[in-house]
Design brief:
The protein is an alpha/beta fold. The protein has a domain of 233 residues: NAD(P)-binding Rossmann-like Domain (Rossmann fold, 3-Layer(aba) Sandwich). The strands form three sheets. It has a seven-stranded parallel beta sheet with strand order 3-2-1-4-5-6-10, with helices on both faces. Helix 5 runs parallel beside helix 6. The longest helix has 21 residues. It starts with a strand and ends with a helix. The model has no long low-confidence stretch (mean pLDDT 90). InterPro entries: Epimerase_deHydtase (IPR001509), NAD(P)-bd_dom_sf (IPR036291), NAD(P)-dependent_oxidoreduct (IPR051783). It comes from Flavobacterium hungaricum.
Length: 333
């Protein structure tokens, strides 16, 4: 049997569907009964509602060690997708506890229960930092601790260190580092994080765009490739998963055109983004509200990072989905 953490998130829900479609017996852990409905909504979206009943759900938490004893019973393979995603500096302790300590618990149990193969869904945020002579970020790019990283990036990097530690202790592992993961452009608002936030902001009349760029990939490609890696003889490797490096403006325009709303028309230059995060910090401090834009997210909006996907293409012969066509084809308007 296969164990999936984070099965109520975007990647985890799609992974559960993909696993069941490919004949796997799956157990998924959850913390809240309400969150399970998000996963069911994904199955409903793809008209696979009957398959949802095949999931063996278990209420537990990756930080709750006693309950994980039950979760690992009879498990042979693990897909660890659960993570806290936040760029609010106030969540630093929660990020470290969930993403690092939680991952440490998962790999420790995997070692104890002699799991055959363990997959960790990380992020391109945990990849290295370009040296002056380098142009593309690859799996071999060194992490520079002297450079500024978001708390989220640090927590995912720390989680990877736990996975590699377990690998040295005998656990066969795979790490995947997806870029920005695009889910279905659904009006049903299946999820409220990640690409769903981008879609909602554009639908609500987002006026600003930036010319930064990063790697993008569809959620269906992420789960398909991850499954292929777990079924292959490949082990103890990490792979960057991006379909293409794309300018944020182009993604926003595609979403706007698909939703038939006005495109963002005002270029938010770096100095403007700097002003926004400073203002947001002030308001959040004065009115005790969560941050909506931070120094890390502001910098990311105009940074032009280039990521290489050559390693996964060489390993599996991967042909990625066109993200523009994916956005248009999944819109249910």
């Amino acid at each position: 049997m296969v164990l999936v953490t984070g099965g109520t998130g975007l990647v985890g829900a799609h992974l559960l569907l993909h696993l069941i479609e490919n004949g796997e017996n799956v157990r998924a852990i959850y913390r809240s009964e309400n969150n399970i409905q998000k996963t069911k909504a994904v199955f409903d979206f793809y008209k696979k509602t009957a398959l949802f009943e095949k999931i063996n759900w278990l209420e537990t938490d990756i930080l709750d060690i006693p309950s994980l004893e039950t979760a690992f019973a009879g498990i042979t393979h693990v897909y660890h997708c659960a993570a806290l995603i936040s760029f609010d500096p106030k969540d630093e302790e929660k990020l470290r506890k969930t993403n690092i300590e939680g991952t440490a618990n998962m790999v420790n149990f995997s070692l104890a229960y002699k799991i055959q193969k363990f997959c960790f869904v990380s992020s391109i945020a945990a990849l290295g930092d370009l040296a002056p002579h380098e142009k593309e970020i690859t799996e071999e790019t060194d992490w520079n601790p002297e450079k500024h990283h978001s708390d989220y990036a640090i927590s995912k990097y720390g989680a990877e260190m736990e996975v590699w530690r377990a690998q040295q202790e005998g656990l066969d592992v795979i790490i995947v580092n997806p870029g920005v993961i695009l889910g279905p452009l659904s009006k049903n608002k299946i999820f409220d994080q990640g690409s769903a936030e981008i879609y909602k902001k554009v639908a609500d009349g987002l006026r600003f765009y930036t010319l930064g760029s990063t790697g993008f990939i569809t959620v269906t490609d992420v789960v398909k490739i991850t499954f292929q890696l777990m079924k292959s003889d490949i082990k103890n490797e990490r792979f960057t998963l991006i379909a293409a490096n794309i300018v944020f403006k182009e993604i926003l325009n595609t979403v706007a055109d698909t939703l038939k709303v006005k495109r963002p028309s005002i270029h938010a230059k770096p100095f403007f983004m700097h002003f926004l995060w400073m203002a947001d910090w002030l308001f959040s401090t004065l009115f005790f509200r969560r941050r909506s834009i931070t120094k890390a997210t502001a910098k990311a909006s105009y940074s032009k990072n280039l990521y290489s996907n050559e390693k996964i293409k060489t390993a599996l012969g991967t042909v990625f989905s066109d993200v523009y066509l994916y956005i248009k084809s999944t819109a249910d308007n």
